[in-house]
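Progress report, Aim 2. The chain analyzed during this reporting quarter is listed below.
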Amino acid sequence: PRGAGKSTAVQHCLRHRPGVVYVSVSDETGPSLARAVLSKAQYALNTPLKAITQSKVQGSTEDDLELLLKASRKPLGMQPTIVIDVGRATPDGTVNKCARFLKELAHDKCACRAILVLSSS
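Predicted structure tokens for the chain:
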């Protein structure tokens, strides 16, 4: 339901929890979703990508994100959580991309937990 406070409820529940990467997605974010999540993850997980990839050749943004998420498990003592909050005016194609992106990271690669918050669209 519109205006019920879905985003606010999720933010409130996860506010002081370690390992939570919160990304707000709009129409402009769609094409660079992995880059936006990687950027926020480095800050939220307090793990610069350079510290992890020193001995490895830098891969794609998705590979680097997976590496970062998996490397942050031990210091956190748990899997990190990615929350993607999809804005109201976001096109269906971007919403589908977000869902596939989170499914791949959380289910297929077991790199994190995932929460997708959909505004009324």
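Residues 92-108 form the longest helix (17 residues). The chain has a mean pLDDT of 85. These observations will guide the mutagenesis work planned for the next reporting period.
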